[in-house]
């Protein structure tokens, strides 16, 4: 069944086949002369039985080495096929053409080239794909010389009516007329003609089979396979060389391990006495552990006693007392219960309150410094005591005041409860007080290790930034711990 008109485009071409290739050179003309027409419709039959070289040259006209190329009408190249060697009915490999604008046309030029010492143009066909004839059965198709068959969408087409539009080498026919054949000769020729048709059919089938299998005798294919085989061999040799190198490295490692094992055996054999002595030393140390443990406990007891005495003296120097139910005082200086309340009072810019709170913070700073020196906290924020103008530094060595200076208080806008509010902020002082509070918590952590108790668990959350409450708690804890032991 033929395909629709719109599918006969250059892009739909799948393969090209050639049938009954024929090319005659001047040399062939001299050897054979031309096949001349007779008065009858029977062609002249040449007798090659006496000269096989003529038969060989005759075959050269039909067994051709060729390839084809496809071109646009403008002359632009579309596709070039592979080379088919010594074949009168070559079936070239299938191909797929790009689906671009220029390949959506239905006109192209097909050129077939043959090789006799050099490449020569055998066929140039200005092909209109819509003017082709559909082939029902390609195996039984009788084709004239140099017929081009095109496969479109798995269907085969060719140009009927004497292949009009296909240009081939021009040949001249002689006007010399041969005598007529006898009846026996005509009958023999008819038999021979049927045999030739059968032979042509067999030749087409065999040609298809040859094209469908791998051409083992194709020299170029053999060379390609030899080249690929050589590449594979080279790769295997490289892998073998690499594996040998790896094996040598493994052998070297094995030898090193053997030497190392031998050394271990030597050490084991030569140092049994050392192991025995070492065990004795371990046993001796193990026996000394209780004594050392007791010594540590006694030392801890001495340290705790020292802490107790220190706390008692410190409480006498800077006593912390209960002002009322909710407030504590240091050296009769009452301070708010947390940092937030302290800042709220300071931001009211009452000079008397500012002096009182700065004095209390000064006392607190002295006590925190004493506890830091007593407990030997390894890492803390360094405090520089300068009387009422002490400072503290963070780990970036930035210094913050431990006294409130109203001139450093600025107005800031903060977003609270869905609205922007203007508040007073003294960021340097607030940071300094928070760092001092962290130092006091570090002292609590250091005492945890000495007393083997978690002091932080006994500090209420709302008292974590209450300096006086934590200091009083530490003094009471260190004085009470000694009495319980």
Which oligomeric state applies? single chain
Q: What string gives the helices and strands in order? A: EHHEEEEEEEEEHHHEEEHHEEEEEHH
Largest sheet: 6 strands, antiparallel
Which stretches are low in confidence, meaning pLDDT under 50 for 5 or more residues running?
Answer: 32-50, 171-178
Q: Please provide the count of β strands.
A: 18
Structural class: alpha+beta
Q: Give the overall form.
A: elongated
Query: What is the radius of gyration computed over CA atoms, rounded to a whole number of angstroms?
Result: 56 Å
Percent of residues in helices comes to 40-55%
Distance between the termini: 113 Å
Give the number of helices: 9
Strand content: 15-25%
Total discrete domains? 3
Average pLDDT taken over every residue: 81
Keywords:
18 strands, 485 residues, 45% helix, 4-stranded antiparallel sheet, 6-stranded antiparallel sheet, Actin-binding Protein, T-fimbrin, domain 1, alpha+beta, 3 domains, 9 helices
